[in-house]
Specification:
The structure holds two protein chains of two kinds. Chain A is of the alpha+beta class. Chain A has helices spanning 37-47, 107-115, 135-139, 158-162, 169-180, 188-195, 209-213, 220-235, and strands at residues 4-12, 22-30, 66-69, 72-75, 88-91, 98-100, 103-104. In chain A, helix 2 (107-115) runs parallel beside helix 5 (169-180) and helix 5 crosses helix 8. The chains are: A alpha+beta, B alpha/beta. Chain A: GO terms for molecular function: 2 iron, 2 sulfur cluster binding; 3 iron, 4 sulfur cluster binding; 4 iron, 4 sulfur cluster binding; electron transfer activity; metal ion binding; succinate dehydrogenase (quinone) activity.
């Protein structure tokens, strides 16, 4: 097999050392087993141990290695390195404060997630065994519960960029609908009240960047639409 | 150097399934609790569990906890402690139902109950026929569970220290645990967490092997910290090689695939498991299936141009079943094997997956170590649960779905014990020793000032290759002996690791060097314990302990029906008896027998 070399252009910023961020041009030779962008980044880190990024499961389920790859948000571990035009331009997720290199401060993102009360609310004393739910009722949660909180969606959303403190964002709203859609949850009205606000829900202008970038092929826009429908129906 | 000090009733290290489950007990009891985690909680490796969690709910086939207990004892090759196993199997329904009440999105049967599927080594009526015991959320059970537990902790207002890496355990002159040191990733600063109780829930160390299903973060941090602090490690020779890692990539393909009807085939297309396990076939326990696969490959019946893997075939299942029950597996196969399992079989190979051994505990989650005549004396203030702990319920081989059960049962149990011990006044805040942080600071200073040192990546690679070659699926006396020498050499190199990046901010080079210190402890424990155990049992099968009429499967109950204890200092080995007595007098012990499937 011929030697594969990858050219990177990587956003670098270490507040301990750099006065301001810069784009680093660097290349790395890959081994035949290096298939994903994350493999290439790990290889690069061997060459320059100061290259900083988060990573864990390397199989698209922990949500650690979200970044902006050639202008589009995605997970490094699910992106085929050979499919990317070079130089591969890597930037941190847009719209969140950068801590260092590709590592962003996700406080605001999780604050919005927490704000929708992301847990089942049911104040009835639980039965001795499981609460019952039909397969059809359970199916309503498909496409909702699989979110990995990688933030690819919210950080690709212009409404979230403008109002990260006021707009819940696609990830948080997907989670809100996950509980609204759950037949075991009894807080639908409170959940709708919580979102009835010019910003929290209604800043979604169905730009659909969230759907375009979701590495788990989820559809936050559809979930947001369903919440909006429920708001309208509740009003009449 | 002035060091920040935080004081809590209890500190939990790790926010995977076990840590989050323990945290719920503490937060809901009102104790002042800190949960330290080096990754955001939902990034913990519990998230990657796929096939299910065991509980004898009996929703689709008749079941009871006695059968589950029997399967678990037999699966452990009788090395598991029967009191802890009874405790776990009896508690299973309670903790799984609780999780459902928390909101976990289990799949459902037509009658609305939790969906259950068959899994390896789980049977009805003491080994007679497969049972549907694995409670599943498609093939994303771990993800659904970890998120449900995290969400419940949001509700309970648990206090997390996210992206803080624990460095070392603090013990006082009595040997009691009084806290931990930890580094905040964002600032690089070291702090002391002073507490009445410390619970370790730090997960496994599968990254000691070159080929592993485990996440990058699975570096045995708690196990390493315990070893450095003088706590012995139990049964570290027992590592589970999962039969179905994607060949080349190592990514896990759940046993649930075989639970749904998947079949392993060799190059001739033969369903070879029929020869090795006539009764449970592809659903025999994991050690048995992995060895059968390696035997097929070693005897030339492997698949592919290099005949180095076998095939996992689900092409006979309906696309609807695959899309409904195994959607994540389909994604993984397309991503990492480049094939769609609806159309073609998945290339798989046994891959390091789970650490059966760990920090010795009892079923209450208390860490125990020999003291005087008692080999199970609790270490005051120290608790552990989940993969980092050894209760011991998995013994020499863990059954699939028992790991998620383990972390629920023992996470809860450790939490309950801490609450009891603190509320009863048994545990109080003991003063910190004067030198509480010195050891951690010395480690950091050594790393900071190291010149002409070794390279972290190279040392780690040398360790991983050594473990892979010398302590794999099959073990050889000669290779183990050479392995001990080799791993001790690697451990020497690890003492002088050098990093180029000296930044204080989110320094991942430093983090990896500190993680390597933990991995090395685990690797030494594994190799030395394995070399010493001169029998075959469960996942530890060696060439010089073959299957004979006198000693079926090479198991030597006359000499080796005992737990290994490895001490880091001097690489000393000790042993303690296996508890063959169940917890309750009314429960009969599962008598020793030859293990066949």
């Amino acid at each position: 097999m011929s030697k594969r070399t990858v050219q990177f252009k990587i956003y670098r910023y270490d507040p301990d050392r750099d006065e301001k961020p810069y784009m680093q041009d660097i290349s790395v030779d890959l081994e035949p087993s290096d298939k994903k962008l994350l493999d290439a980044l790990v290889r690069l880190k061997v060459k320059d141990d100061s290259t900083s990024f988060r990573r864990s499961c390397r199989e698209g389920v922990c949500g650690s290695d979200a970044m902006n790859i050639n202008g589009k948000n995605g997970l490094a571990c699910l992106t085929d390195v050979d499919s990317l035009p070079q130089p591969i331009v890597l930037r941190p997720l847009p719209g969140l404060p950068v801590i260092r290199d590709l590592i962003v401060d996700m406080t605001q993102f999780f604050k919005q997630y927490n704000s929708i009360k992301p847990y089942l609310v049911n104040d009835n004393p639980p039965p001795e065994r499981e609460r019952l739910q039909s397969p059809e009722e359970r199916e309503e949660l498909n496409g909702l519960y699989e979110c990995i909180l990688c933030a690819c969606c919210s950080t690709s959303c212009p409404s979230f960029w403008w109002n990260p403190d006021k707009f819940v964002g696609p990830a948080g709203l997907l989670a809100a609908y996950r509980f609204i859609a759950d037949t075991r949850d009894e807080a639908t009205n409170e959940r709708l009240d919580n979102l009835e606000d010019p910003y929290r829900l209604f800043r979604c202008h169905t730009i659909m960047n969230c759907v375009d970038v979701c590495p788990k092929s989820l559809n936050p826009t559809r979930a947001i639409g369903k919440i909006k429908d429920m708001m309208v129906r509740r009003a009449v | 150097m002035k060091i920040a000090k935080h004081t809590y009733d209890a500190v939990i290290v790790g926010a995977g399934g076990a840590g989050l489950r323990a945290a719920l007990q503490l937060s809901e009891s009102g104790l002042k609790t800190a949960v330290l985690t080096k990754v955001f909680p939902t990034r913990s490796h519990t998230v990657a569990a796929q096939g299910g969690v065991a509980a004898s709910l009996g929703n689709s086939t008749e079941d009871n906890w006695h059968w589950h207990m029997y399967d678990t004892v037999k699966g452990s090759d009788w090395l598991g402690d029967q009191d802890a196993i009874e405790f776990m199997c009896r508690k299973a329904n309670e903790v799984v139902v609780e999780l459902e009440h928390y909101g976990m999105p289990f799949d459902r049967l037509d009658n609305g109950k939790i969906y259950q599927r068959p899994f390896g080594g789980h049977s009805q009526n003491y080994g007679q026929s497969p049972v549907s015991r694995s409670c599943a959320a498609a093939d994303r059970t771990g993800h659904a569970m970890l998120h449900a537990l995290y969400q419940r902790n949001v509700r309970a207002k648990t206090q997390f220290f996210v992206e803080w890496m624990a460095l070392d355990l603090i013990r006082d002159a009595d040997g009691d645990v009084v806290g931990v040191t930890a580094m905040e990733m964002e600032t690089g600063e070291v702090s002391i967490f002073h507490a009445k109780a410390v619970i370790f829930a730090t997960g496994g160390a599968g990254r000691i092997y070159y080929s592993s299903t485990n996440a990058f973060i699975n570096t045995g941090d708690g196990v390493g910290m315990a070893a450095r602090a003088g706590v012995p490690l139990e049964d570290m020779e027992f590592w589970q090689f999962h039969p179905t890692g994607v060949a080349g990539a190592g990514v896990l393909i759940t046993e649930g695939v075989r639970g749904e009807g998947g079949i392993l085939r060799n190059a001739a297309g033969e369903r070879f498991m029929e020869r090795y396990a006539p009764n449970l076939k592809d659903l025999a326990s994991r050690d048995v299936v992995s060895r059968s696969m390696v035997t097929e490959i070693n005897e030339g019946r492997g698949c592919g141009p290099d005949k180095d893997h076998v095939l996992l075939d689900i092409t006979h299942l309906s696309p609807e079943t695959i899309m409904k029950r195994l959607p994540g597996i389909r994604e993984i196969s397309i991503q990492f094997a480049g094939i769609d399992p609806i159309k073609a079989p998945i290339p798989v190979v046994p891959t390091c997956h789970y650490q059966m051994g760990g920090i010795p505990t009892n079923y209450k989650g208390q860490v125990v170590a020999p003291k005087g005549d008692n080999s199970n004396t609790p270490v005051t203030g120290f608790y552990a649960a989940g993969e980092c702990a050894c209760a011991s319920v998995h013994g020499a081989n863990r059954l699939g779905t028992n790991s998620l059960l383990d972390l629920l049962v023992f996470g809860k149990s450790a939490g309950e014990t801490v609450v009891e011990d603190i509320q009863s006044g048994n545990l109080r805040l003991k003063p910190l020793p004067d030198n509480a942080a010195d050891f951690s600071l010395a480690r950091m200073a050594r790393l900071e000032n190291q010149k002409d040192g070794t390279n972290v990546h190279e040392v780690r690679l040398a360790m991983q290759r050594t473990m892979q070659k010398h302590a794999g699926v099959f073990r050889f006396s000669e290779l183990l002996q050479q392995g001990v020498t080799a791993i001790l050499e690697v451990a020497e190199q690890a003492k002088t690791t050098e990093i180029k990046d000296k930044s204080m901010v989110w320094n991942t080079a430093r983090m990896e060097a500190l993680e390597l210190d933990n991995l090395i402890e685990v690797a030494k424990a594994t190799m030395i314990s394995a070399e010493a155990r001169k029998e075959s049992r469960g996942a530890h099968v060696r060439d010089d302990a073959p299957d004979t009429p006198e000693f079926p499967n090479g198991r030597r109950d006359d000499e080796w029906l005992k737990h290994t204890l490895w001490y880091s200092e001097g690489n000393r080995l000790d042993y303690k008896p296996v508890n063959l007595q169940p917890m309750s007098e009314s429960v009969d012990p599962i008598a020793l027998a030859t293990r066949t499937y």
